[in-house]
């Protein structure tokens, strides 16, 4: 996310532009090491400075994407409850800006032709074929007008998407949900419903966001073929200006995808590295690396205390590995 105070922080008076790169200084190496790095872009991108706003209707300068690009992100989900905050032009400009920065947007579309061309995002990495689909529970009641498309959670569409992926030889299907109730530590009934639907139709991995707090991570084997499945109900806030308890950080979820000797799907080497957002400059602090003196920053004692309190909350969440 990008709130008003972040926008002000990213402004560079000398060049009169914006750059968020400083936020990612201490996590970019980890993000760049992955074959694919995914992130949820919970703001729109605007070219009009009058549209640079935080809550309740988010609009960010292109410089916000500069830091995201430099940090190593490859794919950005753009279907969330703030997708339509700046109307049709905001949807268009966000899609175009992400593409122009060399990244791939999934979940929103400029028209039906764009939808038909991009809706099935498929990527092959080291012989493993992956499909990614992104959906949101709503756009906060803001109508999506003029033929634009924001993919909403819909059981029939999810079934169609997973079926298409399976029929086209995809090994792993990832469903990327924006859902649930904000600030709830445990998944609510709607999250459980959509996760169960996704798993029932054959998804292999489900990644969630919107609650703004980290929720449990489940790794298990489905019964029919004894293949691995992974559900991360909510990854929390990787970067934002929210500061109420449990919202001032999140996790970096990493995993390896493999096919074993019997061509069964395996999800291995799962980690859930905790991060905390230092509000002075909105720097993302990898907590474990900080504790090992692995970054060139010493937090003030009160900030360090707040960060460790956040870490203590994460240690109570089932399924986290760090």
Structure description:
α6 packs parallel to α7 (189-201). Strands 9-10-12-13-15-14 form a six-stranded mixed sheet, covered by helices on one side. Strands 3-6-7 form a three-stranded parallel sheet. The two termini are 24 Å apart. The protein has 322 residues and is α/β, with parallel strands linked by helices. β17 and β18 form a beta hairpin. It has helices at residues 4-10, 28-33, 62-71, 87-100, 112-118, 155-167, 189-201, 287-291, 301-314; strands at 11-12, 17-18, 38-40, 44-45, 59-60, 75-77, 104-106, 108-109, 121-125, 128-136, 149-150, 172-178, 205-209, 217-221, 228-232, 249-259, 265-278, 283-286. It has one domain: Purple Acid Phosphatase, chain A, domain 2. The longest helix has 14 residues, at 87-100.
What are the defining features of this structure?
322 residues, Purple Acid Phosphatase, chain A, domain 2, six-stranded mixed β-sheet, three-stranded parallel β-sheet, alpha/beta, 9 helices
Write the layout of secondary structure elements.
Elements lengths: L3 H7 E2 L4 E2 L9 H6 L4 E3 L3 E2 L13 E2 L1 H10 L3 E3 L9 H14 L3 E3 L1 E2 L2 H7 L2 E5 L2 E9 L12 E2 L4 H13 L4 E7 L10 H13 L3 E5 L7 E5 L6 E5 L16 E11 L5 E14 L4 E4 H5 L9 H14 L8
Helix pairs in contact: 6-7
């Amino acid at each position: 996310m990008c709130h008003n105070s972040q926008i002000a922080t990213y402004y560079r008076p000398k060049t009169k532009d914006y750059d968020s790169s400083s936020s990612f200084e201490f996590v970019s190496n980890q993000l760049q090491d992955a074959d694919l790095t995914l992130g949820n872009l919970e703001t729109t991108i605007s070219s009009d400075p009058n549209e640079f706003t935080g809550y309740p209707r988010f609009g960010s300068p292109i410089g916000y994407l500069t830091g995201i690009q430099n940090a190593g992100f490859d794919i950005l989900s753009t279907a969330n409850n703030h997708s339509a905050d700046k109307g049709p032009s905001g949807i268009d400009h966000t899609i175009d800006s992400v593409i122009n920065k060399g990244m791939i947007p999934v979940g929103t579309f400029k028209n039906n032709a764009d939808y038909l061309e991009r809706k099935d995002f498929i990527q092959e990495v080291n012989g493993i074929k992956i499909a990614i689909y992104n959906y949101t529970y709503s756009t906060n009641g803001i109508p999506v007008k003029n033929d634009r498309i924001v993919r909403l959670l819909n059981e029939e569409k999810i079934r169609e998407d997973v079926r298409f992926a399976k029929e086209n030889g995809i090994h792993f299907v990832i469903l990327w949900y924006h859902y649930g109730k904000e600030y709830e530590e445990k998944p609510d009934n709607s999250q459980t419903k959509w996760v169960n639907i996704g798993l029932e139709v054959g998804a292999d991995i489900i990644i969630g966001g919107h609650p703004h707090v980290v929720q449990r991570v489940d790794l298990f084997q489905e019964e029919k073929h004894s293949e691995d499945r992974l559900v991360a109900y909510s990854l929390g806030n990787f970067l934002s200006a929210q500061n109420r308890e449990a919202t001032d950080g999140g996790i970096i979820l990493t995993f390896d995808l493999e096919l074993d000797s019997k061509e069964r799907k395996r999800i291995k080497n799962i980690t859930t590295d905790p991060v905390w957002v230092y509000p002075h400059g909105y720097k993302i602090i990898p907590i474990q690396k900080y504790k090992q003196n692995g970054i060139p920053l010493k937090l003030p004692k009160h900030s360090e205390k707040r960060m460790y309190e956040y870490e203590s909350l994460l240690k109570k969440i089932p399924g986290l590995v760090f």
